[in-house]
Amino acid sequence: MEHFVAAPKLYLDDEKKYRKHAMDFFKRHGVSLQVSEKIEDAIKKVSNENIAIFLCDLVLDEIQTGDASIDGFKILIEIREKNKNIFLALYTAYHQELTEEERTVCRAKNIMIYQKDDDDEFMLNIAKDYNNFTQSKSASVTEKEFFNLSKDLVIAHLRKISNQSAKVYWS
Whole-model pTM? Predict the structure, then answer.
């Protein structure tokens, strides 16, 4: 849990009452949380600061471009494309409005979905999910690392065979 507590967190929500509510809720659990009401500010913070956890509301009605409201789901997809190492989550009262296709994309892109709740279980779940996320990231091997590891194992095996062959040949 302490790994989660120390991780820098940011929450994007268009409604002031929910930003304040989230800050108070996290604070009651001894967890700091930065909040943002503007997409541009949130994306800058995620890009320029060491934000480890980014929570985003799904329905951002008060943040508008033209006639359409901004969808938090799309923001998280955009961030995931740029940063595979950040823990991303929708934190919303409208989780039931996500389509099955959107839920599938969230699973594929490792984006968690949480219902806005005031219960302690939410804090435990997000802490557990964050710790699992960071452990899976540290345990994962890049394609290049895998290739180099495989190459090294093959070379070591060939040397062993070569040494054994030389002993047989010279015996």
Answer: 0.75
